[in-house]
Each structure stands twice: as C-alpha cells, then as structure tokens.
Amino acid sequence: MPNHRLSRAARRPVRVSFEFFPPKTPEMEATLWRSIERLAPLDPTFMSVTYGAGGSTRERTHATVARMVTDTVVPPAAHLTCVSATKAEVDAVVDAYREAGVRHIVALRGDPANGVGGTFEPHPGGYASTAELVAGIRRRAPEIELSVSAYPEKHPESPSLEADFDVLKAKVDAGANRAITQFFFDNDHYLRYVDQARARGIHIPIVPGIVPVSNFKQTASFAARAGATVPEWFAARFEGLDNDVQTRQLIAAAVAAEQVLDLVDHGVKDFHFYTMNKADLVYAVCHLLGLRPTAATAKAAAA
Ligand code: FAD
After folding, report:
1. Is the CB of 149 under 6 A from ligand 1?
2. What's the domain range around 122?
3. pLDDT digits (tens, 9 = 90+) for 1-12
4. Ligand 1 in reach of 178 Cβ (< 6 A)
5. CATH of the domain at 65
C-alpha cells in the first residue's frame, strides 16, 4: 500500500540548513568534513558553525567557516556570542568573518562564562544583550544576514514565555532576519509558539531546530539543561536500547522522520538540523523530505 504521507511530503519544496560545531582534533576534523561532503550536495540554504562558550572556539569556528567558503558552494553562517568580550573584540570577529567571505551570522547572547545555569554578566565593555549585538552588527555590516535563537518551551533563564517574546521582538526590531529554535520533541510546542509570535507581530521565519537522537541518554541530559521537555511517549521509544546501537539508529531515523513529516503536514518548509557533525541520520531524514543530491553542489563538495 503506498504511503501517502511520505509521497505528499516528498512533493513539497522543503529547504534545510545544517549546524556543525568546530572540531577539536584532526580526527574530529576529518569526521566533520566527511559529513559536510555528504550533506552539502543536498543544497542546504546554509551551513552554520557554532561558537564555543566565551569565544573559546574563535579560531576554530573561523577556520571552519573560511574553509566552507573556499571548499563548498553552500553559504556558511558563523555563530557569534556576546560573552566575555568587549564590543571591539566582537566587532573584530565580525570583520574577520566578512573578510573571509561570510555573509550570515547567527547572533547569540551565549551561555554564561561559568556554564549553563550560571548567571550571565555582560562584559563591562561588551554587548549586554543579543538585541544590542544584532544592532551592532547591523550598523557595521548592513549586508549581513542575521539569524537569532528562539525557545518554543521558554529559555531556562526566562521568567515567562511572555518575557521571551519581548526578547525575540527586540532582536527582530534590531534587525534579525530569521529565528532558529531550540530543539523540541513535541511539535505542539513549536506550532503554538509560532502562532503566539505571529499574534505579537513577529513575522520573521521561525525555523524549527531538529535534533536527530542517535544517543537518547545524552540528548535527554542535554534537553534537561536546555529547557526542552522529553515527553514520556518519546522516551518510551528508546526504552531498553541503551546497549543496542543498531536498533537505536533505526528508531532514531523513524522518530525524526515522524517529527519532520508531521511539521511538513502543518505547512513547515524550512528545517534546521543540529547534525552533531554526523551525516547519516540527517541525510536519511532529508531524503524522506524529498531532497536529493544536486550535481553542482556534489561536484563542489568533492573538489
Ligand atoms: P537571548 O535570546 O538573547 O535570550 C534568551 C532568553 O534568556 C531571553 O528570552 C531572556 O528571558 C533570558 N535572558 C537573556 N538575558 C538575560 C539576563 N541578562 N537576565 C535574565 N534573563 C535573561 N551558545 C553558544 O555559546 N554558542 C553557539 O554557537 C550557540 N548556538 C546556538 C544556536 C541556536 C539555534 C540556539 C537556539 C542556541 C544556541 N546557543 C549557543 C545557546 C545560547 O547561547 C544560550 O541558550 C544562551 O543561554 C542564550 O543566548 P540567546 O542568544 O539564545 O539568548
């Protein structure tokens, strides 16, 4: 019997973007570039590279996005945070990205220097909030595309969802072009959040951040810190599989497919994947979304 849900999804034009983190070792670098070579031919809107807490990956983030500019035809996006840096230091990073040919920045406050759950203290000479950072980049580099974060289940430090919407609105008013959400497992959180944002006059694209769960234990602990709830029905799907990697991978693909296809059914056309620098699961989900390697990008990635 044909699966109408899959074929319907496959017919819709869907756009994707991929997030990577800068590698620490030559082995991790090789893994990252194998993943990029596999995913770039899917013609993503952009591929982004995270920025370590307090600028700890400054050079590695720069090196990775710079190589994306030269070795792929996919536009890179560089993450940038306000933590532990003066405005002049942050501005210098923006200038270096521009010189390297980067035209898209994901602007963030960043986690407190003392770690997730700590208190964020703005640097005395630094940008005090993401909205300030966005305004600063906009003034300095009007041509730059700016993405920011959004939290469908509220940021853990936020007193309320309402306060979060005020922060998002301030980022949009300062010049943000797009929001990318924290990951979530219950699509209702995302769909409700988008409706509420629209009702508050926030009209930029709010792209769902999707994390394919290859290691449930690890993701559940990360979700707890990030303020993303793990529904019981979701946890149950991975129950008893801690030591069964093979089955876990199959379940992970099925679960991620179920999530994105449901979002497609709700009219969502853009997806941002947290790849964790691994390609297989994300590639499979993109295939289900109807994406196929294109010759031009395949050639560029192989070059
Ligand atoms: P904002 O959107 O500016 O604020 C989020 C919420 O925090 C606000 O709604 C507000 O309620 C609350 N808040 C902000 N400032 C204060 C304050 N001073 N006092 C009390 N409450 C406050 N982190 C990295 O370090 N590097 C990355 O590359 C990175 N990439 C990310 C990409 C995405 C798509 C997402 C969703 C997150 C990313 N993060 C990254 C994590 C992010 O830096 C943290 O969640 C951080 O705690 C908040 O930064 P933000 O820009 O999301 O905050």
Report:
1. yes
2. 4-302
3. 444 555 544 455
4. no
5. 3.20.20.220
Task: Provide the 8-state DSSP code for 277.
Answer: T
Tokens encoding 164 = 């979060």
Kindly report, residue by residue over 54-110, the tens digit of the pLDDT.
778 889 999 999 999 999 999 999 999 999 899 999 999 999 999 999 999 999 999
Hey, how many other C-beta atoms are within 10 angstroms of the C-beta on 159? 9
E strands, the chain, are 15-20, 47-49, 76-81, 104-108, 145-150, 178-183, 206-210, 270-274
Report the alpha-carbon distance of residue 269 to residue 14 in Å, rounded.
5
Q: Which two tokens stand for residue 256?
A: 């991620």
Number of structural domains in the chain: 1
81 in ligand 1 pocket by Cβ < 6 Å? Answer: yes
Atom 11 of ligand 1: nearest residue by CA position = 158
Structure tokens at 186: 């219950």
Select from 108, 274, 275 the residue to mutate for testing ligand 1; criterion: most ligand atoms less than 8 Å from CB.
108
CA 80/CA 61 separation, integer angstroms: 9
Q: Is 143 known to be catalytic?
A: no
Ligand 1 binding pocket includes 60 (Cβ within 6 Å): no
CB neighbours of 159 closer than 8 A, spacing ≥ 6?
none
